[in-house]
UniProtKB/TrEMBL annotation:
Biological classification of the source: Eukaryota, Metazoa, Chordata, Craniata, Vertebrata
InterPro entries per record: GPCR_Rhodpsn, GPCR_Rhodpsn_7TM, LDL_receptor-like_sf, LDLR_class-A_CS, LDrepeatLR_classA_rpt, Leu-rich_rpt, Leu-rich_rpt_typical-subtyp, LRR_dom_sf
Stored PROSITE patterns: G_PROTEIN_RECEP_F1_2, LDLRA_1, LDLRA_2, LRR
Transmembrane annotation, as ranges: 403-425, 437-459, 479-501, 522-540, 576-599, 619-642, 654-676
A molecular function (GO) term: G protein-coupled peptide receptor activity
Species whose genome carries this gene: Peromyscus maniculatus bairdii
Protein name (Swiss-Prot/TrEMBL): Relaxin receptor 2
Cellular component terms (Gene Ontology): plasma membrane
Topology within the bilayer: Multi-pass membrane protein
Domain G-protein coupled receptors family 1 profile, residue spans: 415-674
Predominant cellular place of this UniProt entry's protein: membrane
Disulfide bonds: 48-63
GO biological process: adenylate cyclase-activating G protein-coupled receptor signaling pathway; hormone-mediated signaling pathway; male gonad development
Source domain of life: Eukaryota
Amino acid sequence: MWLLLQVIVLTEVKGFVVADGSRVAPLCPKGYFPCGNLTKCLPRAFHCDGVDDCGNGADEDGCGDTSGWPTIFGTVHGNVRRVTLTQECFLSQYPQHCSCRENELECIQADLKAVPKVSSNVTVLSLKKNKIHSLPVKVFSKYTELKKIYLQHNCITHISRRAFFGLYNLQILYLSHNCITALRPGIFKDLHQLTWLILDDNPITRVSPRSFTGLNSLFFLSMVSNQLEVLPERLCAQMPLLNWMDLANNEIKYLTNSTFLTCDSLTVLFLPRNQIEFVPEKTFSSLKNLGELDLSSNMITELPAHIFSNLHLLQKLNLSSNPLLYVHKNQFGSLKQLQSLDLERIEIPNINTGMFQPLKNLSHIYLKSFRYCSYVPHVRICMPSTDGLSSSEDLLANRILRVSVWVIAFITSVGNVLVIAVRSLIKAENTTHAMSIKILCCADCLMGVYLFFVGVFDIKYRGQYQKYALLWMESIPCRLLGFLATLSTEVSVLLLTFLTLEKFLVIVFPFSNLRLGKRQTAVALASIWGLGLLIAAVPFTSEEYFGNFYGKNGVCFPLHYDQAEDFGSRGYSLGIFLGVNLLAFLIIVSSYAAMFCSIQKTALQTSEVRSHIGKEVAVANRFFFIVFSDAICWIPVFVVKILSLLQVEVPGTITSWIVVFFLPVNSALNPILYTLTTSFFKDQLKELLHKHRRKSVFKVKKKSLSTSIVWTDDSSLKLGVLNRIALGDSIMKPGSP
Ligand SMILES: *[C@@H]1O[C@H](CO)[C@@H](O)[C@H](O)[C@H]1NC(C)=O
Ligand SMILES: *[C@@H]1O[C@H](CO)[C@@H](O)[C@H](O)[C@H]1NC(C)=O
Ligand SMILES: *[C@@H]1O[C@H](CO)[C@@H](O)[C@H](O)[C@H]1NC(C)=O
Ligand SMILES: *[C@@H]1O[C@H](CO)[C@@H](O)[C@H](O)[C@H]1NC(C)=O
Ligand SMILES: *[C@@H]1O[C@H](CO)[C@@H](O)[C@H](O)[C@H]1NC(C)=O
């Protein structure tokens, strides 16, 4: 315990000052960050927590993820001037329900069925929310001054190939929320000045390769929420200045090497919510100016290793919500400018620190699990900032858990220590058996110690767990606690199996000489402890293979159910819980089944045999409760493990409930069962009963409740026989422990 506390003291924060007279930005250890130009280092979690931890506000600077288009857009459209128009109208001809200011005309919801006739020098024409269903030949050709046309919400189905002819000055064209199904070749042929083309929310399924001919000034193209399935090859060939392309929420299935071949100027490319499955290696190779790429919510299962290798200026990359199966070791190696990387909901089984090391400028990263954040210690903000088990404030998020951990720690350790003491004081007749029980209590007591320390660390981090979570999980105390818990459970399980098998041999083969002597028992017990120690210590041997086996959650218990965890530790955890423990559990259950059958038979035989094995049966009776508590304890763990094998998502909170409530059931109940069901205690009870017969009837009933609960199923007949045998034995031999 002292070792644990010392280690905690040693893992304090230390900053470094380079000692050559001048002040240099401090070199901080991994996972820590310098406070601006101060020599202070803070853990990553102190960043952006709303508190000025540095003193100069450096830790609260630049918290929002503004990388990508917000900054790119800022540099391109830095100084947009808004011109205030006078009330005067310069147009001599326009429909009734329209409003006119200078050369700008607005006809919103004016029930227009066609493009109205207006003065030829109109510059802005807004026809939103009318009933225009088609744009005939040269409908705008008279209005050569037009700079902006707004045609949203009209259900335009038909656009003549020559509808926009003659609009040499048009800069902005909005056609969103219409019923356009296809873009014909050459439709925008004359729009040499067009910079914005908005085609959102149309049922467009087809775009001809030459649809965009003539758009040689186009800067911004948005085709969000159409039904586009195929993009033409060399999409940008006709619009060499295209800077921004938004194709979100279409039905695009694949991209090819040449889709974006000539998009040299493209800085922002949005392709989220499509059905892209395959992206060939050269798809983005000519996008040398790309600053933001969004491929989120697609069906991409595999990305070629060098797909991003030419994107030297990329600032923001969003790959979230793709069923990506594998991330190459050097997938992000060339993204030196990347500031934000979104890999939410992506499992990275081969995750390692080297994968993100080249991303020197990365400040925001979004990963699938909190645990992954430990692989990107140099990134300032890593999401999620906590796992499901603990809240961002507390190690044990739930109030009930927080109190229970202490109660159960107390019951477990005090109960076991008491049993060890009592057993040592009373001279048991079966000394080897008493020795086994004491050893079992030692193992169970460790569970109490473990819970006690979980409670201590919960208090230590109360209210600010988020800041220390990763440090805590990486720390040596956490690993030692995990080791302790594993040691306790494994030794306990192995001992119970051993004791059960011992009883099994005695009861099922009462006349054989299979009983172990004192020395043999001692050797068996020692080897069980050795085996337990080995099982718990193996994960320390290879950091590479097991990673941080114990530090995967706040309570440091290696109940790995996360699909994404490394193969080594997941396999080992599976081996322990569904291998060793399930096997032990099955051995115990089947041994008891065999014992009950045997007892039922012998109960019908002579009283001589009965007296011979009666003593052993009393012990077997006690052991039944241990099996019962064993079942309560282990079945939830088996269920969680099997669910994780079936790839069912298990919420993180499950771990803490299992660790605090189910695992210690065994350790907490064993001492109670041992003291309450021994014949010594029964005798004491009987004496009490005799003295205060009237008063204590209810109390005794309560105390024997643990017995009656179990006896209420239809196996009660058989068990009743067993019980009578056990009682008969203690009556025959009063005073025996
Ligand atoms: C840190 O920088 C701020 C301005 O950014 C300056 O006012 C301050 O004096 C600097 N502190 C040190 C210790 O250099
Ligand atoms: C064109 O606009 C000018 C003002 O800019 C106006 O004086 C003139 O009458 C307009 N011409 C026509 C044909 O409407
Ligand atoms: C795309 O480029 C890669 C590498 O140059 C090549 O192997 C592949 O065949 C190309 N695919 C297509 C569809 O052109
Ligand atoms: C990435 O895309 C998803 C879904 O399209 C979105 O919710 C998320 O906010 C994006 N990430 C970033 C960092 O913008
Ligand atoms: C990181 O980004 C900053 C701008 O935010 C830039 O000045 C710097 O050169 C970048 N660093 C690297 C290594 O590219």
